[in-house]
Design brief:
The chain is an alpha+beta fold and about 675 residues long. It is built from 16 helices and 39 strands. It folds into 5 domains: about 100 residues, 3-Layer(aba) Sandwich (Rossmann fold), CATH 3.40.50; about 160 residues, 2-Layer Sandwich (D-amino Acid Aminotransferase, Chain A, domain 1); about 130 residues, ATP-grasp fold, B domain (D-amino Acid Aminotransferase, Chain A, domain 1), CATH 3.30.470; about 110 residues, Glycoprotein, Type 4 Pilin (2-Layer Sandwich); about 70 residues, RNA polymerase II/Efflux pump adaptor protein, barrel-sandwich hybrid domain (OB fold (Dihydrolipoamide Acetyltransferase, E2P), Beta Barrel). Helix content is about 25%, strand content about 30%.
C-alpha cells in the first residue's frame, strides 16, 4: 500500500494528484523550485521539499534531487504527473531501484514508446495503422511539408512545420533547443504533416493482471503551436464503428508493450481522404497511429466526466496491484475542456508573466473532481489570487471543463463561464476560447487542426467587449475611482458619510473631471461632471449614474441597467460586466522622460533569457529579419526587425535575462535617397 506519495511535478497537475491522494487517505509530498515557494501546490501538500534553483533543468528535471526529496520526506511512491520526467524511462527505473513505488508504466514500456520511430514499428507489427517514417537527415522536397517533433515529450514543444527544404536545418536547431529545455533531451524526428487532420486519442487504463480498458476517444484538434487548447469527449467526428476500431487499435497497442497504468494512444484521422496514407477504396475517416503518451494527459478530465472514472485514483490503485473490473463503464453526456493560458493570441501567442491579482470563475461546482449530478462545471487550476507567473514554466493557468447532456449545452455553459470569469493581472486567451466555443464551425463539429488557419485569428482573438463597451467600462472605472477618492478623503478628514459631495462637484458649471486610460493599443479619455441633475459625461448621451462605490458603478444606458464590477490595482483597473471584461491602464498626466525609449527600439515582449544573437552592431538588417531569440516559458521566441535599417545598438548578449519592456536593440531606419 502507498502511504505517502511525492508528486514529481508542479502547479495544476500536482494539485490534481494531491486531490486523488486525499480521497484515498494517502499523505502527500510537494517539491518546489524557488519561484514556486509560494505556489498553491506547495502549500496544499502535507510535506514539501525545496529544489534549489529556478529553471526546469535545475529543479524538476533533476531525477536524483526528486528521489532524494522522497527519501528525506518519507515518501514511498512517486507520481510524475505529465511533462518534465513523466516519460523518462531512466527516471522510472531509478525510482524503482530506490525501493519506491513508481505510479506509471514500466520503464521498458516507456522506453519502447520513447523512440517515436521504434514505436511506429512496434505498432505496425501489432497491426495498428501507422504513418510513414521520415529521418530528419533524409527529408527531400518530395516529402514536404513535414512536422518536426520532440522524441522525449509533447505539449507542442520542439515541434516545427517545414514547408521549404532550405528551412529544415534552422528549424531542426530550434526544435532541438526547445526539446532540450523542456525535456532534457534534444532528440527530434520528422513525420508527414497533415494540414487539416483530426487529432483523436484513446484513453487506456491497464492493470497488472492483463485487463485493458479503452475509455473512448477524445478530440484535441484545435491547437496553437501544435499544443492543444480545446479538447472534448466524445469526438464529433467519430461514429460508433470508428470508435470500435479506434479502441481495438488502442488496446492492441497497449497489449503489444505490456502496458500498465493510465496512458493515451494518439491517432491522426483524415476525413477528407486526401492524405497519401489512405489506400484507394478505403472509406473516409481513416486513422493512423501517431504516438503513445505513457503518462496521464492534460485533458484527462473530459474522459473522467463522461465515464465517471477517477483516472488518477486508479493510477494509484493499479500501482498497488488492484485489478480493474472486467467491463469498462459506459459513457454519459459530453464534456469539453479549454486550457486557459497566460498568453496574447493577438500577438503571436506571446506568453505572459507577472502577478495574477484575481482569479475567479463563476458557476464552478467541482475542483479536480467529477461534478456531481451528471453535469456541471469543473476547474483544475494551478493558480489562486496573487499567484506570480514565472517565465520558467508553461503559461497554463487552469483547465475549465463543462459536462452536460449534449455537446451544444456543454459549449454554451463553458463559453458563458469564461466570459464571466474575473482574470485580472495578465493577458490571457480567455476571449479567444469563448469565441471559439460560440463559433458556428465549432458548434457544427468542424474542428480540425487547421481551425485557426481557416478562421480569422484576429477576429477570434478580439476582445469580447466592443469599443463602445470599452468606453462605458472606462466611464465606470473613472466613477469608481472618484468614489474611492471620496471615501479616502472622508476617512482622513473624519467627515460623516452622509452629506458628502461627489468628487469634482461644483455649485456652478466648471471644468469636467478627466481620466485617460490605455485599452490595448488605444487611448480612451473620459470627461464628466457630477451636477445637481446627475452625471453629465461627454459622448455618453442618455447614460445615467444610478450608484457608485470604489468597487462598482451602476449605469443606466438607454434605459438598460448595467453593473460594472471595478477592481483597481497599482498598474491597472479591471472592469467586468455583461458587456465583457475590460482591462484599463491609467495614463499619467505627465510622462517621465526617463521612461521614454529611442525610436526604432525593439522591446522585450515578455521576461525571458536571450539564447541566441544573430547580428552585431552596424549590421544592415531587413524588415522581418531575425535578430535574436528570447526563451520564455520553455518556448523559443524569435525577435525580428520591425523595419529595414542599421543595427545602431545591441543591449543584450547570449545569457542575458531581460524584463518585459526592456530595450533589446535599436534599429535606425535608413531614408531612401
Amino acid at each position: 500500500m502507498i502511504n505517502r506519495l511525492l508528486a514529481a511535478n508542479r502547479g495544476e497537475i500536482a494539485r490534481r494528484v494531491f486531490h486523488a491522494c486525499r480521497s484515498l487517505g494517502v499523505s502527500t509530498v510537494a517539491v518546489y523550485s524557488d519561484p514556486d515557494a509560494a505556489s498553491p501546490h506547495t502549500a496544499e501538500a502535507d510535506v514539501s521539499a525545496r529544489l534549489p534553483g529556478a529553471t526546469p533543468g535545475e529543479t524538476y528535471l533533476r531525477g536524483e534531487l526528486l528521489i532524494e526529496a522522497a527519501r528525506a520526506t518519507g515518501a514511498d511512491a512517486i507520481h510524475p504527473g505529465y511533462g518534465f520526467l513523466s516519460e523518462n524511462a531512466e527516471f522510472a527505473q531509478a525510482v524503482l531501484d530506490a525501493g519506491l513505488t513508481w505510479v506509471g508504466p514500466s520503464p521498458k514500456a516507456i522506453e519502447s514508446m520513447g523512440s517515436k520511430i521504434e514505436a511506429k514499428r512496434l505498432m505496425a507489427d501489432a497491426g495498428v495503422p501507422v504513418l510513414g517514417e521520415l529521418s530528419s537527415d533524409a527529408v527531400t522536397a518530395d516529402d514536404l511539408p513535414v512536422l518536426i517533433k520532440a522524441s522525449a515529450g509533447g505539449g507542442g514543444r520542439g515541434m516545427r512545420i517545414v514547408r521549404d527544404l532550405a528551412d529544415l536545418p534552422k528549424q531542426l536547431e530550434a526544435a532541438r533547443a526547445e526539446a532540450q529545455s523542456a525535456f532534457g533531451d534534444e532528440t527530434v524526428f520528422c513525420e508527414p504533416y497533415v494540414a487539416n487532420g483530426r487529432h483523436i486519442e484513446v484513453q487506456i487504463l491497464a492493470d497488472q493482471h492483463g485487463e485493458v480498458w479503452a475509455l473512448g476517444e477524445r478530440e484535441c484538434s484545435i491547437q496553437r503551436r501544435h499544443q492543444k487548447v480545446v479538447e472534448e469527449a466524445p469526438s464529433p467526428l467519430v461514429s460508433d464503428t470508428m470508435r470500435t476500431e479506434l479502441c481495438e487499435a488502442a488496446i492492441a497497442a497497449a497489449k503489444a508493450i505490456g502496458y500498465v497504468g493510465a496512458g493515451t494512444v494518439e491517432f491522426l484521422a483524415d476525413e477528407s481522404g486526401r492524405f497519401s496514407g489512405r489506400r484507394a477504396g478505403e472509406p473516409d475517416h481513416r486513422f493512423w497511429f501517431l504516438e503513445m503518451n505513457t503518462r496521464l494527459q492534460v485533458e484527462h478530465p473530459v474522459t473522467e466526466c463522461v465515464t465517471g472514472v477517477d483516472l488518477v485514483a486508479w493510477q494509484l490503485r493499479i500501482a498497488e496491484g488492484a485489478a480493474l473490473p472486467p467491463d469498462p463503464p459506459s459513457f454519459t453526456g459530453h464534456a469539453i475542456e479549454v486550457r486557459l493560458y497566460a498568453e496574447d493570441p493577438a500577438h503571436d501567442w506571446q506568453p505572459q508573466a507577472g502577478t495574477l491579482h484575481r482569479f475567479h470563475v463563476p458557476g464552478v461546482n467541482a475542483e479536480f473532481a467529477i461534478p456531481p449530478g451528471g453535469s456541471g462545471l469543473r476547474l483544475d487550476s494551478g493558480v489562486v489570487d496573487g499567484s506570480v507567473l514565472s517565465t520558467h514554466y508553461d503559461p497554463m493557468l487552469a483547465k475549465l471543463i463543462a459536462w452536460a447532456p449534449t455537446r451544444a449545452e456543454a459549449a454554451r455553459r463553458l463559453a458563458t463561464a469564461l466570459a464571466g470569469a474575473r482574470v485580472h493581472g495578465v493577458v490571457t486567451n480567455r476571449d479567444l476560447l469563448a469565441r471559439v466555443l460560440r463559433h458556428p464551425a465549432f458548434l457544427a463539429g468542424e474542428t480540425d487542426t487547421g481551425f485557426f488557419d481557416r478562421h480569422d485569428l484576429a477576429t477570434l482573438a478580439a476582445p469580447l467587449a466592443d469599443p463602445e463597451a470599452e468606453k462605458l467600462s472606462a466611464l465606470a472605472a473613472a466613477l469608481a475611482d472618484a468614489a474611492a477618492n471620496q471615501d479616502h478623503a472622508a476617512r482622513r478628514s473624519g467627515a460623516p458619510v452622509l452629506g458628502r459631495l461627489p468628487s469634482g462637484w461644483r455649485n456652478v458649471p466648471s471644468q469636467p473631471q478627466r481620466k485617460r486610460y490605455r485599452v490595448g493599443d488605444r487611448q480612451v479619455e473620459v470627461r464628466y461632471r457630477l451636477t445637481r441633475d446627475g452625471l453629465a459625461a461627454e459622448g455618453f448621451d442618455g447614460v445615467r449614474l444610478l450608484a457608485s462605490a470604489p468597487d462598482q458603478a451602476v449605469l443606466e444606458v438607454g434605459g438598460v441597467t448595467r453593473t460594472f464590477a471595478v477592481a483597481a490595482y497599482p498598474d491597472m483597473v479591471c472592469a467586468d460586466s455583461a458587456l465583457g471584461p475590460v482591462t484599463l491602464r491609467p495614463e499619467p498626466r505627465f510622462v517621465d522622460p526617463a521612461e521614454q525609449v529611442a525610436e526604432g527600439s525593439l522591446l522585450a515582449p515578455m521576461p525571458g533569457t536571450v539564447t541566441a544573437v544573430h547580428v552585431a552592431e552596424g549590421d544592415q538588417v531587413e524588415a522581418g529579419a531575425p535578430l535574436l531569440v528570447l526563451e520564455a516559458m520553455k518556448m523559443q521566441h524569435p525577435i525580428n526587425a520591425a523595419e529595414a535599417g542599421v543595427l545602431a545598438s545591441l543591449h543584450v548578449s547570449v545569457g542575458s535575462a531581460v524584463d518585459a519592456g526592456s530595450v533589446l536593440a535599436v534599429v535606425e531606419s535608413q531614408e531612401e535617397p
